[in-house]
Design brief:
This protein folds into 3 domains: about 160 residues, FAD/NAD(P)-binding domain (3-Layer(bba) Sandwich); about 150 residues, 2-Layer Sandwich (D-Amino Acid Oxidase, Chain A, domain 2), CATH 3.30.9.10; about 80 residues, Arc Repressor Mutant, subunit A. Helices cover about 30% and strands about 25% of the residues. The N and C termini lie far apart (about 45 Å). It has 13 helices and 22 strands. α1 runs parallel beside α9, α11 crosses α12 and α11 packs across α13. The protein is an alpha+beta fold and about 475 residues long.
Length: about 475
């Protein structure tokens, strides 16, 4: 069977492309080696910031797609019922920093098309953010900066794509891509060969490898690990804006930023590594994050840290995104080397590539495309009247499973039953926040495992944390031959 389009990669960029392509009369298949969308790569482990676009070098694809993508988020998040907040960003200069760099960033941002930029005095900064560190001397105000949940957005994009006819094939590792006649052949680790008229390379840290299989226009992906702390949401009100420090050649620096769910992120570091799958946190990296973050937040409550994590950015050797068809690889479309501001750029990349692909395939637009997706009701955000009505419809919404985040059994069952429903503990976690609170699933995980078993008809020993060999249980106590 020759499909119209195969998208390799189910991160935020791949899912944004799938959702935009589903506007057209095309047969679309998305494949990913992970067990879930937003499971691998940096989609699930980033700063969750919708960047304004002041930092990207003028004239680059990063600058173009950053600003275009930023402007698409308001409507997109309404359509997909994804939480989104334009709380603004501040780039803070401290004692010893070159304050003139704030003006350099402002001018660069204006060249890129970022509206509303303003350099603030120390007094203006402290009026906005009174808890900023004592050595702060000024800041760049970026009113278009925003926050969004990256994995909730990705799941919503994927669900909406499925509702509009796209298909997903997970647990499918791609091992090779080659062209035979007018058809692209996508080979998998399971020995399957998938055929398509067009292929989209949105494979994150593997995007360089797949690009180099088909074109002389080479691209190397250089992994860069960023480590983070997360602080309990009881401190959500300390800072309103995302608090950046002056950027360096390794990125936008250590930030202190509230998420849409109220927890606070500290990080990321920027360490060049050899293994793109090495998402360990290290004492050295975490100490570095704390040292720099304390400039922004001097009385940081370290006793309220609830977890640490790391993500790996696919840094392109060219320094810029690689988008579109190589000259010697017709109908092979790159969305490669997508590091920061990749989350912000994803909607614009998706729209642009979908239009190019549809034009190349002479596809017509659907009359029945539905841009709207209904989210799972969030019990913690409902009024008492809304809660009572929901429980009357389904009593499972009256049973709390995750106490830290006030997640109900009804929400968990809904997450499993949806298009591309959860199949793992982390899959439930990303869709409902069960296990993301202060105890980090210490209380709720046994019940979540039981619900997964009931819904999927599985034994507890079949349930995994994130697919593959990540089993939570290895056997039953007392059974012969099992530990």
């Amino acid at each position: 069977m020759v499909r119209d389009v195969i998208i390799v990669g189910a991160g935020v960029v791949g899912c944004a492309i799938a959702r935009e392509l589903s506007r057209w009369d095309l047969d679309i298949l998305v494949v990913d080696q992970a067990s879930d969308v937003a499971e691998g790569g940096c989609t699930k482990a980033n700063t969750a910031i919708v960047h304004g676009g002041y930092d990207a070098k003028e004239g680059t694809l990063k600058a173009k797609y950053n600003v275009e993508g930023n402007g698409m988020f308001d409507q997109l998040c309404v359509e997909l019922e994804v939480p989104f907040e334009r709380n603004g960003s501040l780039v803070v200069a401290f004692e010893g920093d070159d304050l003139s760099q704030l003006e350099v960033l402002r001018k660069r941002g204006e060249t890129n098309g970022v509206p509303g930029l303003k350099v603030l005095s120390e007094a203006e900064l402290r009026e906005k953010e009174p808890h900023v560190g004592s050595t702060a001397r000024g800041a760049l105000w970026v009113p278009t900066g925003a926050i969004v949940c990256p994995y909730e957005l990705t799941i919503a994009l994927a669900e909406n794509a499925v509702e509009n006819g796209a298909r997903f094939q997970l647990d499918t590792a791609v091992t090779g891509i080659r062209r035979e006649g007018e058809v692209w052949l996508v080979e998998t680790a399971a020995g399957e060969t998938l055929e398509a008229k067009a292929v989209v390379n949105a494979a994150g840290y593997q995007s360089g490898k797949f690009n180099n299989m088909v074109t002389a226009e080479k691209l190397d992906i250089l992994p860069r690990r960023g480590e983070y702390y997360m602080i309990d949401k009881s401190y959500a009100g300390v800072f309103h804006s995302a608090m950046f420090q002056l950027p360096s050649d390794k990125g936008k620096g250590i930030l202190v930023a509230r998420t849409v769910d109220g927890s606070i992120l500290i990080g990321p570091t920027a360490e060049d590594i050899d293994d793109p799958t090495d998402t360990r946190t290290t004492a050295e990296g975490l100490d570095k994050a704390l040292t720099f973050a304390r400039k922004t937040w001097e009385d940081m409550p370290t006793r309220s840290f609830i977890t640490t994590f790391a993500g790996v950015r696919p840094r392109p050797s060219t320094g810029d995104f690689k988008i579109g068809e190589p000259a010697d690889a017709p109908f092979f479309f790159n969305a490669a080397g997508i590091e920061s501001p990749g989350l912000t750029s994803a909607p614009a990349i998706g729209k642009d590539l979908a239009q190019r692909i549809a034009q190349r395939l002479n596809a017509g637009k659907k009359d029945n495309f539905n841009p709207n997706r209904k989210a799972i009701p969030k019990f913690r955000e409902l009024s008492n009247e809304e809660r009572a009505a929901l429980i009357a419809q389904d009593p499972a919404f009256g049973r709390i499973v995750c106490r830290c985040e006030t997640v109900t059994e009804g929400e968990i069952r809904a997450a499993i039953r949806r298009p591309l429903g959860a199949r793992t503990l982390d899959g439930v976690k990303r869709r409902t926040r069960a296990g993301m609170g202060r105890c980090q699933s210490g209380f709720c995980s046994p019940r979540v495992v039981a619900i997964l078993c009931e819904e999927l008809g599985l034994d507890p020993t079949d349930i995994t944390k994130f697919g593959g060999a990540s089993k939570l249980l290895v056997g039953r106590i007392g059974e012969e031959g099992k530990a």
